[in-house]
Specification:
21% strand, 3 domains, Helix Hairpins, alpha/beta, Heat Shock Protein 90, Rossmann fold, elongated, five-stranded mixed sheet
Amino acid sequence: MIPNSIPDVIRVLLVDDDEEDYLIIKHLFASMKSIDSKLEWVSSSDEAIEKICAAAHDIYLIDYRIDGRTGLDVLQEVRAIERLEPFILLTGVGDLDIERESLQLAASDYLVKKNLTSESLARALYYALGRKEQEKQKINHLLEINRSKDEFISIASHQLRTPVTTVKQYIAMVLDGHAGDLSEKQQRFLDKAYKSNERQLSIINNLLKVAQVDSGAYNLARQRIDVSEIVKSAAEDFTPIFASNNQAISSSYDIKAEGMVDESAIRMIIDNLLENACKYSRPQSNTHIAVALNFGMIEVSIEDHGVGVSEPDKLFKKFSRIENELSTEVGGTGLGLYWAQSVARLHGGDLVYEAHDTGSKFKLLLPSVK
């Protein structure tokens, strides 16, 4: 029995530049008894790509050879792996390499034309649609799990933030002498408690920021701002922090780089990058921050001479921590860069990483305005 998820009449697009093959396949469809279908034929790859992008069909049959292109080229161009409809590749002769590559590009099946019968073609359509439906259900299930997790993180973070903030305030009051004089030992213990509480509050705030971004609830307060001024302020504020670690920070921001940005959010991204550069660099090293304009984009680059990144593909993933020679000394949640890149993209820009021989280089890209 055909699952309810498969349409009563299956809309099929056949992409084949050989009219004889089209007529043979048309006859096979007319002979099918188990599946009702509506077949449309196109003979050029350009027309095929246009039709596929319009998403007006339930399944696509694509010949391997099409007017100078291959079916694999079409699969790649339409990004078949991201589409909801299944693709079946047709070929004149069997070829294991082509079959393997077509499956890697998300083709549901690979059929040899000379072996086709109405029954085998109907079965291929049935299974391709069924497998795709199972994939959709799995994806929807995972998305629902992810939404539930994000909702839990958001609620838990909100609930934790208030008591943690209250504890911080009371510790600060005791440290300020509002509960009487403290012994040296009490002062030392409370200082440690206060710093631990600040770290805990920072983690909760990071969780909240990520939950807002993931839920689409993070709203940008855009205004026309010279990003060079944000960089200048950050560089000045971080100069004593770098100095306390026996490091230096240099800068170049002698251009006007205006963009419609959320000043607070951009400052937090830059602070995150500078903090990482400081934490993952050795004493006597230098970090350079610069502003440039390239092809209509503001480019804020932060280049350090630290330990570098061994697994750059994990950098911007949520809760991802990359091991290095300083990672055991430096704490973190693995959320900062994920959040920073997400907010950069909300601005219509990006945050990217470039490796170099003596450290790391991050580029914050933002659209500029004239």
